[in-house]
Each structure stands twice: as structure tokens, then as C-alpha cells.
Amino acid sequence: MSVLLDPEGEWDFQAVRERFGGRFRANHSEELNFGFTGSVVWLRFSVDASGTGGEDWYLVERYPILDHITLFAPLPEGGYRRVDMGDTLPFGHRLMDHRAFIFPLDTTVGADRDYYLRVSGKGALNMSPMLYSATGLVEYTYRDLLVYGIFYGCLLIMVVYNALLALSLKEPVYLYFVAFLVGITVFNLNVNGFGLQFLWPAVPKLNEYYWLGIYICTPALAMYSRHFLNLKERFPRYDRLIRGYLLGVAALLPVQLLIAAPWSYYLSTLLVVITVLLFSWLGWAVWSAGYRAARLYVAAWFVFLGLILVFVLGNLDWIAYNSLISMLPHLGALWVVVMLSLALGDRIRFLEQERNLLARQSRENLERHLVEIEQMNRDKSTFLQYVSHELNTPINWIGAADSLGGGEDQEGVWQLVRKGQRRLIGMVSTSLRYFDLADRERPPKARRCRPRRLLEALLASREGALAWQRLVVEGHIDGDLWVNANEEELGEVLSIGLDNAIRFSEPGGVIEVYGQALAGEALIRIRDHGRGAGPEQLESLFEPFFVVGSRHHEEGYGLSLAMARVMVEQAGGRIWAESQGPGTGFALVIRLPLA
């Protein structure tokens, strides 16, 4: 077989056969690809029918979307018979009811007679001419129908399955997927030749609008992706990108309808390339951002991207063309359909897991809130008891002062009144301070500070109290120990620990203060050798309004350790108490992040 290109498309058969016969060039490829070209392609081949024994043979062009294909076949008496076919002609013009172009050959013609084939079109000119015997043609037809029957059967199953899911689950994502499948089906029915054969045999003009399937697929795919990847809630920036893409497709459709082929073909091909690249990138971006349900979506589009890229390169004649390349869109479509269907199932499983997680978290939050409410009720009762007790004490003092008001000891009366006043003022201010700390949404800014310097300042300020009780402070805090905390509040916490140690130590006792870096944290320990506490009291020490022993305690309000816990925990640290039991002393342990 040899090939001749007519760049202008003006040569007739007689000129090609006689004047330009010497310009034919030998062809050694079984698959011919001329890409998008305005040239007319002429093929010349010789057939020796002397050994056929009268058996029928057929020339079959298996590429079904050639606009014009004309065979010039030799006649026994001389001359040539012209047979015109192509997908621009009604299907009834064909000699055989088949999606491929089939030309019966006259095997009574003598040996080595030349046949000529003229091919032209506005789309890509791909050709796969074959010679078949009658038996071979039947086998080819059965194979062809089997392959495409499986392909369209899979599409039909997916359409019905996802339509039923859409009806039962009431989720629009399945409807968008059905629309995507319908678009793929319409597109492939057209480019496979089945549309002209079965759906619009008398209206071949519709074949020029094969790209309408693309304009069904692309918006359906965009809406499917928006819902499947949950872009509106999880990735609003990508959602705006997809909305812009949809507007672009809507604006492109009237342009596509107005421009003539082959420019409309170029535009639809460009849209396919942009769509595949966009949604491949989108799936990868969403998956990389941690949305695990996108993994099969990514697998679907990356494989499809590779197959379509090879198909486009083949149609542009940039790589060697063969019949497998013509099947790549079908293989890619099946791959995408199967993977996206699996992805929907995977998404259901992912959403189910997410829902179970949210339900478990909600249950845990509810249980925690119930515990907090119960604790608040207990705290309220404790607070009311505390307030009742603390108000009762100064009221009793004031009542005692009133009963002594007529006596001679006026100074003692006023001392009782002033003592009650100070007690009430201290209770109110300390309580307000605790509630302010506990309710604040944002703790003060933390920075590098050195506990040793703070403790040295505290010891200097309490030198008189230590001397009065003959207390000795021992221990060591590393000078290069730096923590990340609010310096003012850390000083207040250390002050609370040191004051409690002074208050509960026996006269002549020892207070131990240590500080060091340990396991990425700073550990500060303030220990006395006073009355200590039982194990059941250690955690209660940090509850508001709790006082060890009798509720009557004139010097404190039961809030100092509660405030210390709030300040330490808001700085990212921990605080707890240690004691071996009553009479063994008490240690306050503070851990803070190192700076």
C-alpha cells in the first residue's frame, strides 16, 4: 500500500491515477495516522485475487468516524466503480449494516489490480484498513460486538446502580455521577459509530456534535467533585475555583455551537485536556491536605490523565498510532467509572467512620459536661457553705462588738469591727480574683523567666517571718534554669507555695526548695515538714474553698492552691501535692515547659 497527500484537496481520481501516480510513497504501517489535517489522503494498494477460489473478500475500514471515504474499485471489463461512504452520509448509504465501513471486493477481477481509497475529514484522520474473508468478517464483527457490549453493559449497570442509590440515599452526588456516565455514553456512542447506526441513522449531521457529550460530562463531573470532596465546607478556596470552571464551561458552550469544525473539535479537545489536568490536580491537592476519602478519586484521574494524554498525542500524530490507542478513551472511561464508583463506596465508609467518631466525641463531651455540671453543683454548694460560714464569722464579731458597745473597752469593740471588715473585704477580693482567673478565655502572654531570681526575691521579702519562726530554707535552684511562663503569675504561684510552707511548718523547722530541668520540663519542689495531709486530701487541696481540717481558718480562704493550679495549667504546666500522711510534711510540685 502506498500513500499520496493532496494538500489542497482539488485532485480528481483521474489526475491522481495518471498525472500524480508517480508521487505515491510506500507505506509500511498497518495503522495510519495523519492527525488533524486539511489534506485529502489517497491510498493505493494492489490485490491479487487469483488465489481466492471465488471466496468473498471485504475491505474494512475499522475507524468509524471518517467524514468521507471513497473506494475506486477496478471492474472486470475495465474502468473503476466508485463507492462513497462516511459518517456525513445517512447510514442507509452503506452496503452493509455495520458501524465500520465495509466494501465488498470483486474477486473475479484479474490478479494485481490497483484499488484507490480517498479519505478526507475535519477531524483526526486515523485509518485501520484490513482485508477480511467472509469468515474473518463474521469473527471480527462478533469480537467487536463483544468488546463494546461489555463496555456499554458496564456503563449501563453503573447508570442504573447509581440512579437507584440516588433515589434511596437522596444524595445529589449520585445524580451528578449518573449525569457524568450519561455524558460518557453519549460521547462514546458517537465516536464508536453506534449513534449513527442505531440512534440517528438519517441525521448524520449530528455526528459533528459528538462534543456535546463532553459538555454533559464536564459540569456533571465538577458538581460531583464539589460534593464528593466536600469542597464547600472543607476547601472553600477550591470550591470557588470549581465555580469559576463551571462559569467558563457555560460561556464556552455557545462559542462551541457557533464556530465550525474543525475548530470546534480543537476547542472540545482543549476542554478535555484542561478538565483532566484540573481534576487530577484537585484530587491530589485535597488528598495531600488530609482528606482520605479522595484517594480513589486521585487514582481514577491520574490513570485517566495518562491514557488521555497518550490518546491525544496519537491523534495529533506526535507518537506512532495503533488500534490500541483508539481504545484508550474507552479503557480510561471504564477505569474512571469503576474507580469513582468505588470512591463513592469508600466515601460512604469514610463518612460513616467520621460520623461514628463525631458521635463518640459528642457522647464523651456530653459525659464530660455532665461531670462538669455535677462538679459545678458541688462547687456551688461548697461555695454557699463557705460564704455562709465566712459571713457568719464577721457577723458574730460585729454582734459581739455591738453587745460590748456600751462598755468601757471601746478599743476592743472597734478592733472586732475592723477585723470583720478586713475578713469580708479579703473574702470578696480573693473570690473575685479566683473567678477572674478561672473564667478568662486567654491567659497572659508567656515569656522566658528565671525561677531562681523570683524565689530569691520572695525569700528576701519573707525574711522576717522566717526569722520569727526560726525556719531554715535549704536546697538549690539551677541558675541557668529558664521556663516559659508569665513572670508575675509564676511569682504569685511560688509565693503561695512558700507562704503555705511557712504557715504550716513547726518553729525551728526546715523548708526545702529545689529546681532543675528534667525530661524537657522544669521541676520546682517546695517542701515543709509540718502537719502534712492524708492521701484522700491531696487532690481536694486544689479544689476551691477547701481547707485541711476545720472549716474555721481565719488566715486563709481555701482559694490559694486553686488559683495556683489555674495559673500553672494555663501556662502549659502541671501542679500537684505530695505527702506521706499526717505529720510527715507536705510538698508542692510544679512542672513548667522549659524556655
From TrEMBL:
Its EC number is 2.7.13.3. The chain crosses the membrane at residues 145-166, 173-189, 209-229, 241-259, 265-287, 294-313, 319-345. SMART domains: HATPase_c (SM00387). Residues 386-595 form the Histidine kinase domain. InterPro entries: 7TMR_DISM_rcpt_extracell_dom1, 7TMR_DISM_rcpt_extracell_dom2, BphY/WalK/GraS-like, HATPase_C_sf, HATPase_dom, His_kinase_dom, HisK_dim/P_dom, HisK_dim/P_sf. It holds the Pfam family 7TMR-DISMED2. The keyword Nucleotide-binding applies. It is an enzyme of class 2 (transferase). It comes from the Bacteria. Keywords: ATP-binding, Kinase, Membrane, Nucleotide-binding, Phosphoprotein, Transferase, Transmembrane, Transmembrane helix, Two-component regulatory system. The keyword RNA-binding does not apply. It catalyses: ATP + protein L-histidine = ADP + protein N-phospho-L-histidine. This is histidine kinase. The lineage of its organism: Bacteria, Pseudomonadati, Pseudomonadota, Gammaproteobacteria, Oceanospirillales.
